[in-house]
């Protein structure tokens, strides 16, 4: 039931943490990476997080946020430190006891109209979203899916769990550029991705230098 605040761009460690947290019985709380120090201070206090994981590029932001909060997480890790631990440790965790109504993860709004607002998902909701997306979007088996929508945004539409369900592969995109997307399609064989209209517009208007040929 303890919360793990995550200030992380989409990367493999982010995805591993979603599986590991649930296995350990703790609640991932991925938060918007594009908010102010004051918002992070509120998020740390409001979530009462026991641990905080952040990408190295957010070290200064996290340090500043922690200076003025009464509640301080007992463990703070970068994704690099988390990756190093995963490479050397193989904890044998018994599945955490959970019911359909147990909290699965916890998300926040961006705080554009006040303090960020918390939204709690339970296991049943996450399961139904994951299974329903396969049918409603007519997904295929073994897709290669590029994660463009940030995982802090509606939990990346639960694709973190949908891809294993389909025997698929997740390709992470830390920096959303036309060149990175074209490279992923050409080099990684990406078959599917999700993106807002602004992302599609960026690809349509990519320069010749940014474009890649692919079958």
Layout of helices and strands:
Blueprint: E1 3-7, H1 12-24, E2 27-30, H2 37-47, E3 51-54, H3 59-66, E4 75-78, H4 79-88, E5 103-108, E6 118-122, H5 123-136, E7 144-147, H6 159-165, E8 169-172, H7 178-188, E9 192-193, H8 197-204
Parallel strand pairs: 1-2, 1-3, 3-4, 7-8, 7-9
Antiparallel strand pairs: 5-6
Helix pairs in contact: 2-3, 5-6
Distance between the termini: 47 Å
Assign the structural class, choosing from mainly alpha, mainly beta, alpha/beta, alpha+beta, or little secondary structure.
alpha/beta
Strand order of the largest sheet: 2-1-3-4
Number of helices: 8
Uncertain regions: pLDDT < 50 for 5+ in a row? none
Report on the structure:
- This protein has 215 residues and is α/β, with parallel strands linked by helices.
- The chain contains eight helices and nine strands.
- The protein has helices at 12-24, 37-47, 59-66, 79-88, 123-136, 159-165, 178-188, 197-204; strands at 3-7, 27-30, 51-54, 75-78, 103-108, 118-122, 144-147, 169-172, 192-193.
- The strands form three sheets. The chain has a four-stranded parallel sheet, sandwiched between helices. Strands 8-7-9 form a three-stranded parallel sheet, with helices on both faces.
- The longest helix has 14 residues, at 123-136.
- It is globular.
Give the structure's gist in a few sentences.
This protein has eight helices and nine strands. By secondary structure, the chain is α/β, with parallel strands linked by helices. Helix 2 crosses helix 3 and helix 5 crosses helix 6.
């Amino acid at each position: 039931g303890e919360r793990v605040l995550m200030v992380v761009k989409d990367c493999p460690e982010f995805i591993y943490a979603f599986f590991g947290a649930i296995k350990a019985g703790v609640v991932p709380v991925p938060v918007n990476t594009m908010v102010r120090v004051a918002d992070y201070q509120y998020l740390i206090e409001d979530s009462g997080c026991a641990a905080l994981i952040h990408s190295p590029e957010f070290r200064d932001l996290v340090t500043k946020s922690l200076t003025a909060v009464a509640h301080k997480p007992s463990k703070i890790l970068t994704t690099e430190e988390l990756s190093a631990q995963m490479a050397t440790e193989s904890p044998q965790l018994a599945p955490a006891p959970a019911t359909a109504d147990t909290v699965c993860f916890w998300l926040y709004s961006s705080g554009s109209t006040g303090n960020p607002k918390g939204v709690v998902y339970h296991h049943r909701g996450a399961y139904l979203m994951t299974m329903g997306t396969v049918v409603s979007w007519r997904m295929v088996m073994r897709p290669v899916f590029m994660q463009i929508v940030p995982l802090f945004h509606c939990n990346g539409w639960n694709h973190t769990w949908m891809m294993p369900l389909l025997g698929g592969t997740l390709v992470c995109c830390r920096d959303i550029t036309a060149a990175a997307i074209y490279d992923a399609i050409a080099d990684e064989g990406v078959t599917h991705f999700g993106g807002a209209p602004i992302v599609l517009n960026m690809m349509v208007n990519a320069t010749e230098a940014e474009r890649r040929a692919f079958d």
